[in-house]
Design brief:
Helices cover 48% and strands 20% of the residues.
């Protein structure tokens, strides 16, 4: 018996619960134009069909979503035969931007007019012409290697199979999309739009910064040329002054030996002294300018080395988090992928600006994911006073049994020591950066509790967090509470999730610091 629902021109063919390792993720139902048990005929049918998945898990993470679908898709489809279809399936497995939860509804529909559509909570995620995508997804249920034979039998309503338990059907029919989740895709798109705008702004600021640096370098080069010309001129003047001093000295000696009057002798001696003083002044000015140039060049090299060392540290952190995508290995994909991204001065990832080659596919996506997993990075060192920094990273994916090697650590130029004694101002800046980074880590760890969203709970929570010198958390004290305990607890849980922060700088004598944080939960 099959039930007619609001899905026009289709009837429910079968219902079953999808679980793995004793955890249920969703209840699925297949809708066909008429009851059908023959798998080949279902796949060949070009009339309207639907797959409806109602999530029953309280938490279905994007990572687990990708893992389960890729496993089922790879087992039931020849993915190497159609690159375009494979890319569509990759896009599908990566679409969740946050955890799916109880009540969320996924619908895969096919009609000859609209092709294949994938919807989440009644909002279209993406579309595809034809039935290839729909059939690839459908094969995870009715293909040769389904999640389980029981699941497939119940979806097909095969005679002699275990009938779907009445409570499963009842739960499927009574499941409703939570009000707070009905604009989920719209919210994701809004966040993506804001992220794109923020990245565009960061790119523009970086472009302006690079232009300023280029202009500053041009002016510095002009100043160096001017300084060289002045140095050469002063050297000539110094030589002339020395020659004049020598001449005046001879004249004074001749005046003495010639028994010239005392006034003439005194004049000759004074001229000699003036010439010697001028030569000494020119030599001193020359030495001071050379020292100023040396210090300026040392400052430039110090900043350049600090930047190279920071970029190397970012690259090292990303390398640690790259893993070879299983599908890419299956398709024998390998090669060098280059990714460019922007990091803010507190170590936050402002966005990825490019991935090349453009068709890097799975490999490029994995490298992008590795960058995201590695963020946030360390705050900029005191020698870098820029707002953001561009990082370019090359990673070689190879099927050979070897691990990609991190590029060698940059070597400090002669005379450069960025770990030397800091000035009081540099120490103050670095200490302030440390505190800002702790607060930023806590803020990024705070999540909006699902049930609080569902119940439309809002409010502002303030807390004092005491951190010990080794970076461990001594205490979290809520100083301003909302009337919703779940929101108050979330701030404490956010700190617990972090566990510990970096240790204090060596020169900090305090054994602990107490930082204040205020977070507003607003829908």
């Amino acid at each position: 018996m099959f039930t007619s629902l609001a899905y026009a021109q289709t009837y429910r063919n079968g219902v079953s619960a999808y679980d793995q390792l004793n955890k249920e993720y969703y209840i699925g139902a297949l809708y066909l134009p008429e009851q059908q048990q023959d798998r080949a005929q279902i796949l060949a049918d070009t009339r309207p069909q639907k797959m409806v998945l109602k999530v029953t898990a309280s938490r279905w993470s994007p990572r687990k979503f990708e893992q389960l679908w890729r496993q089922d898709l790879a087992l039931n489809n020849n993915l190497g035969a159609d690159a375009n279809l494979t890319n569509q399936l990759i896009e599908f497995t990566r679409f969740p931007k946050e955890n799916l939860t109880t009540g969320d509804e996924l619908v895969f529909s096919y009609t000859s007019k609209s092709g294949t559509e994938v919807l989440l909570n009644k909002e279209v995620i993406f579309q595809s012409q034809g039935k290839k995508l729909f059939n690839a997804l459908l094969r995870t249920w009715i293909g040769d290697v389904p999640n389980s034979q029981i699941f497939q039998s119940q979806i097909l309503s095969l005679e002699g199979s275990l009938a779907t338990a009445p409570d499963v059907i009842q739960r499927f029919e009574s499941s409703a999309i939570p009000v707070a989740r009905q604009q989920l895709v719209t919210n994701w798109k809004s966040v993506e739009t804001q992220a794109r705008l923020a990245l565009a702004k960061a790119e523009q600021e970086l472009k302006i910064q690079l232009q300023r640096e280029a202009e500053a370098e041009k002016k510095a080069e002009e100043a160096r040329k001017k300084a060289e010309a002045e140095k050469k001129q002063r050297e000539e003047e110094r030589k002339k002054a020395l020659a004049l001093a020598e001449q005046r000295k001879k004249e004074a000696e001749q005046a003495k030996s010639g028994n010239t009057d005392e006034q003439a002798v005194a004049a000759a001696l004074a001229a000699q002294k003036a010439a010697e003083e001028k030569a000494a002044a020119l030599a001193k000015a020359q030495k001071e300018q050379e020292e100023a140039q040396r210090q300026a060049e040392l400052a430039r090299l110090t900043k350049q080395y600090a930047q190279e060392l920071y970029q190397w540290g970012v690259v090292r952190d990303v390398y640690k988090r790259v893993s070879y995508p299983e599908w890419a290995r299956q398709f024998n994909q390998e090669g060098i992928v280059t990714i460019e991204f922007i990091v803010g001065n507190q170590g936050q990832l402002l966005g990825v600006t490019s991935i090349s080659p453009a068709d890097s596919g799975l490999l490029g996506q994995e490298l992008k994911d590795a960058v995201t997993r590695a963020a946030p990075f360390n705050a900029f060192p005191v020698q870098l006073n820029d707002k953001q920094l561009r990082v370019v990273l090359d990673y070689e994916f190879t099927l050979e049994e070897r691990v990609a090697q991190v590029p060698p650590e940059p070597k400090a130029p002669e005379g450069v020591d960025i770990n030397g004694e800091l000035t009081s101002v540099q120490k103050a800046v670095q200490w302030a950066k440390y505190k800002d980074q702790v607060i930023a880590q806590i803020e990024s760890s705070i999540e909006y509790p699902f049930w609080a969203k569902d119940l439309k709970q809002e409010g502002t929570v303030a807390a004092e967090i005491t951190v010990l010198a080794d970076g461990s958390v001594k205490s979290v004290k809520i100083t301003k509470r909302t009337r919703h305990s779940i929101l108050n607890q979330e701030v404490e849980l956010a700190v617990d999730r972090i566990g510990s922060f970096g240790a204090f700088p060596d020169w900090i004598e305090d054994q602990s610091i107490t930082l204040e944080i205020e977070h507003t939960f607003k829908l």
